[in-house]
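#lab-general

N.A. 3:47 PM
ok so I finally got the sequence cleaned up, no stray characters, all 309 residues accounted for. can someone with queue access submit it? mine expired

B.Y. 3:52 PM
send it over

N.A. 3:53 PM
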Amino acid sequence: MPTPPPRTESASSPREFQLAAIGIDSSHLPQFSRRIRALRESGQTPCRVTQMWTDGDHGMRGEQVEKWTMQAQAEGVVLTEKLDDALDAVDGVMVLGVDGHKHLDFARPGLERGLPTYIDKPLACSLEDAKEILALSRRHDAPCYSASSLRFASEVRKLDPEVLGDLVAVSAYGPGERHDIMPGLYFYGIHTIEMVDAIWPGPVARVRCAFRDDRDLVELEYADGRYAHLRMDRKGVYEFGGTVQGTKGTHAFKVDFSEIYDRLIDGMVRFFEGGPPPVQLERLVENVALIEAAHRSVDADGAWIDVSA
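B.Y. 4:20 PM
back already:
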């Protein structure tokens, strides 16, 4: 893989670590481009998004995609006609296409070149695809990860084991928006799932799930006996939060979004600079296995389904 440039400033500006955005039908395209450029201009990273490419098949409305494309172009990102041209010009890849079914195809060319790759949530929309992404990353020595911004909520990272003791149970909530391109939990339920995974890594042994008109309900049982309840609402206010119970105390929290994207982007640029991924790819594959098992549970009228990655 390409060697990242040093982070120290010299008399002349350090070489840019250029990034390509693959897939343009997400608001994350201009959001990430703007935030990374700002870090670059303040001397905090050599990274910058310089290329973007689309297959022309968008999962969001055309007027939205056009707006996001124009906003990215205003940040200096060039729309290329050929994927190879974009990849030839960069040192790393961000897969930002909103449809998780395409993430393997979008990520494969960069991974096969050994390029470090960030894949926007979800990692994939099938366990088979997720395992293939992992295999490509290993085979081509191409660092790779995916993440919801909820992983970086300060409320999640500041849970104090001295106050809580050993964690026993988690009850978490978040929005449950749906989208036809990614049925079930992949489109928005993934945020609450990743938030809980950040609090409490797996492995999850089994799951059961119920879909209602206004909410999705998920129960997790971990291999070591821990358990979690997740509720994704479609009528409630747009908020994420939860309650964590331990052997010494209980703590309730609501996520503050004021700095959450800054922490997501900071982890991303450090990764592209050669640092470790903020979360191991193997854990993300486990989360895809969890969602797949949850969907099977719905089909089985809410029966417990074993999770196997």
